[in-house]
């Protein structure tokens, strides 16, 4: 769904493109950090007893579960768990 008029989209793109590549990357990183923080807050609210490691795993699943097969996801979660136990 897109309810933004094309003239507004064009103006926004023009404004973004006036920023340097470094500034655009910095904006993207801040947006990702905000999304991660909001996701973590939602997980904590839904599952208040989870530890930090479990929250990280759930964030990973929320962001990337559509990118991998179930087998791959399980392998990644095992690897994440192994890295946390060191």
Count of folded domains: 1
Helix and strand run: HHHH
Oligomeric nature of the chains? single chain
Largest sheet: none
Helicity, in percent?
over 70%
Number of helices: 4
Distance between the termini: 45 Å
- Principal-axis shape equals elongated
Number-wise, the strands total: 0
Instruction: Return residue spans where pLDDT drops below 50 for at least 5 consecutive residues.
Output: none
* Classification by helices and strands: mainly alpha
Mean pLDDT: 92
Radius of gyration: 18 Å
Please describe what this structure looks like.
This protein is mainly α and 86 residues long. It has one domain (6-84). It has helices spanning 6-17, 21-46, 52-64, 70-84. The mean pLDDT is 92.
Brief characterization of the structure:
The chain is mainly α and 86 residues long. It contains four helices and no strands. Helix 2 crosses helix 3.
List keywords for this structure.
elongated; 4 helices; 86 residues; mainly alpha
SSE diagram, text form:
Layout: H1 6-17, H2 21-46, H3 52-64, H4 70-84
